[in-house]
């Protein structure tokens, strides 16, 4: 009686091999998830460490993003004050305003005559009664110029100020923008700080996952020896450990996203109160969906990398006796 020939892997069609390839990967992915929940305390602690580690650079990134949004809004609100010479008539000043409006660097022009300037100073300074004893108005007329978006940076605004001061009716101009340059310098420092801290924490994540996978390999040493005895390939043996590292990264990235959202929710009211003092109504931004995908993708890659380095090193040291 002849035996029925068995369908081996080599006899499978290409489509069948592709299907089996994905099936095996899905089986190992689900199996590695089951291994995590067999030791929930250790797994949750490792995921929490990864989530906190990833949330630190992510929190700094959120801080930088909000700082850039604030500086952009303040850039567009920067104004140049042009003080007009006292001897100039209203007709001459209107001619000056007409010329300034033609400048391509100018976004908006407002005029405050001498009477309006005095009334505003009286209301804001608290010296209203004392100023009423003055024989003449000591304040000059002021033309306020808001640069266009293209020239709203400190450098562009300074160039526009130099150009406007060449007008014959202008006594001098003022641009109080040093504070904005300091703020931009702080934002640049934060960006470099994010990169430095992110690099250190990326290394920490790889080391934590690598050490966790090393312990998992040691706990399954006997099983690995048996698998090698029956002829299992290294790729087959190491695949569950690689998926374990990926799961650690994915869940750690999601935990980091949750931590960031809670942090933004906690700080949003305080930031709104602070910005309200400066006349701004901006709302604190959290991580977008694209940034969430990038964070989870980076975390899963770090999990795979830490697992791969640990598996490649420790599996070679295990040989059946």
Give start-end ranges of low-pLDDT stretches: 1-9
- Amino- and carboxy-terminal Cα gap: 40 Å
Strand sequence of the main sheet, in spatial order? Answer: 2-3-1-4
* Estimated helix fraction: 55-70%
User: What is the SS-derived class?
Assistant: alpha+beta
Q: How many strands, which pairing sense, and closed or not: the largest β-sheet?
A: 4 strands, antiparallel
Quaternary state of this entry equals: single chain
Shape, per Cα inertia axes: rod-shaped
- Number of DSSP strand runs: 4
Order of helices and strands: HHEHEHHEHEHHHH
Number of helices: 10
Using the CA coordinates, give the radius of gyration. Answer: 33 Å
| Average predicted local confidence, pLDDT | 78
Strand content: 5-15%
Blueprint (SSEs and pairs):
Elements: H1 14-38, H2 40-76, E1 80-84, H3 90-102, E2 106-112, H4 114-125, H5 128-131, E3 142-147, H6 154-164, E4 170-174, H7 178-219, H8 221-229, H9 234-276, H10 289-315
Antiparallel strand pairs: 1-3, 1-4, 2-3
Account of the protein in words:
Helix 2 (about 40-75) packs antiparallel against helix 7, helix 7 (about 180-220) runs parallel beside helix 10 (about 290-315) and helix 9 packs antiparallel against helix 10. The chain is of the alpha+beta class. A 4-stranded antiparallel β-sheet has the order 2-3-1-4. The chain has 10 helices and 4 strands, in the order ααβαβααβαβαααα. The protein is rod-shaped.
